[in-house]
Amino acid sequence: MPIPIILPKFGFTLETADIVQWLKQDGDTVRAGDPICEVTTDKVNMEVEAPESGTLMNPLYAAGATVPVTEVIAYLLRPGEARPSKLPTAAPASESVLTAADIQPATTESAGTSVSPVAQRIAEAGNVDLSQIKGSGRNNRIVRRDVEGALTRPDGKVRATPAARHLAKEAGIDLLTVSGSGPRGRIQSADVEAAGQAVTPVEQVPPPASSPLILSGEQPRIVKMEGMRRTIANRLQKSFQTAPHIFFDAAIDTGGIEKLRQSLKARDEKLSVTTILVKACAGVLMRHPWLNATLDGEEIALWPTANIGVAVALEAGLVVPVVRNADRLSMHAIQTSVDELAKRARENTLKVPDMVDGTFTISNLGMFGVDRFTAIINPPQVAILAVGRTQQQFVPDANGQPVLRSFMTVTLSADHRVVDGAQAANFLQDLRTVLEEPALLAW
Predict the structure, then answer these.
(1) CATH of the domain at 186
(2) Given 245, 288, 332, 416, the catalytic residue
(3) Is residue 225 included in any domain, yes or no?
(4) 258 and 188 in a common domain
(5) Does residue 91 register a pLDDT over 70?
């Protein structure tokens, strides 16, 4: 029996991955642990390894396909094992993937429709009328997940991820009308989003003949949204559509920060504003656990340590590597970690462990001259801090006389399903206190 090769689930929130390229081809001999294909997941590339030694048999998905995690992507023949007479062929991610039982030569016909052997056995055991089932496999073949879906629907127990259930509830979509693309037909968030977008297309009205672009012959350069850009688009669209964002601004006097940085600079020590922000946020989050949280469906996880994501802008998009256990690290250790993660981000050598399990994110655009901005929450987190540039302005001193001071504006975006306004305000108040008196960071 051929060994199924499964697309691993690299992260807790990961539902799909894109196959970038196959490193081994059909018929290639591989050893256990050899990389057989490269996939992109959550903005980083990973390799899928062979589980055993043998011969790679006909990959099921072509390069560029989007595949649900835990799906079979290929099979492996053990040394000396004969190749089956019927082989699986490449299929888009929206179609069914053949299981080991499905590649047996036997085929059953029901009302002129092809039925896989596994689907036939499950239908017989569950007394399911195959003539009432629409196949989702190639050439409308009825496969296992179609029958399993029919078995679960009469009592309303539809197989779906918690995130998909929540999204369907928010959008008013009946899960019984959604076709699942996950393992065993499980409905995922992407399936609900696709169902919500399935509307009648509006007739496109061509631009008037007098359009300057048409008259001049100018045409736009079309760029396909794929890879990192598609991942960013999907995650942020989902976040902004499902999480009710609330925003809070605070102006922070940076005099204490600059004094600390200058003192260390005199000793040839580097200390960035981002590092100070990471340390400050990590400490304050320990006193405000509802902002150091993640939301999965209807479950809120309050984390005992602060894993701070630091947004890094690249030419291809934005990545958010994570400084783990930042509340337990010195600023020197945080600075080293931030520098290393930023370097690996620019070199495109980040791994999935560098990108997952974040509990809070900081996005600093001050170095780009941005005064202030609002950031979209990075799900499943419930808060993100946007940091603008430092500006000088005159403010009255204790005697009412104008003095020149430096301020930066920070904007907290919070998920109102988890974070109340008073909680967010208290967090910002404590954050302002430690940033304006950085000595408190050592306490």
Answers:
(1) 4.10.320.10
(2) 416
(3) no
(4) no
(5) no
